[in-house]
Amino acid sequence: MTAHLPRGSAVWEYYGGQRAITAETESLWLVEHATIAVASAKPDRVKPRPYPLGVREQERQQQYTTSQADAWRRKQQARLDAASADG
Fold it and tell me: Closest Cα to residue 60, out of 11, 16, 30, 2?
């Protein structure tokens, strides 16, 4: 069913990757890369723009970052509580 959806549609944006952008956008990215590579002193180090992450992957990364921040906050609060109990 998804095989007939056009590139850049909301479904492909959800999944990410090459089909998340339109062919026109990809062409512009390739032109941009070629232009920067030609103007660069080290063209072999110029990397093309990566394809966008899907919404699913972005949400997963956000959840991971949030859980890490929460764990750090709990750890810091425990340290502060221990320091105030000692003092």
Answer: 16
